[in-house]
Amino acid sequence: MAKRIQKETTHEDAAEPIEPPTPAGPNPTAQGLDQVLADIDDVLEINALSFVQGFVQKGGQ
């Protein structure tokens, strides 16, 4: 039968306390995305009918 070799492991790293991550500030990408979504919402409030008609199938297309 084959002998198993056991490797000793030390847990020196586990003894050190883990610092929690610092909270990040506002994400500029998310702010830009929010502005784009707000612009789209404004356009849809004004031109909702024409926007929806752009997706309606016509004559079996």
UniProtKB/TrEMBL annotation:
Source organism superkingdom: Bacteria
Region spans: Disordered: 1-32
Composition bias, Basic and acidic residues: 1-14
GO biological process, one term: proteasomal protein catabolic process
This protein's pathway: Protein degradation; proteasomal Pup-dependent pathway
InterPro entries linked: Ubiquitin-like_Pup
Gene Ontology terms, MF aspect: proteasome binding; protein tag activity
Similarity field: Belongs to the prokaryotic ubiquitin-like protein family.
Name listed for the protein in its UniProt record: Prokaryotic ubiquitin-like protein Pup
Organism of derivation: Bowdeniella nasicola
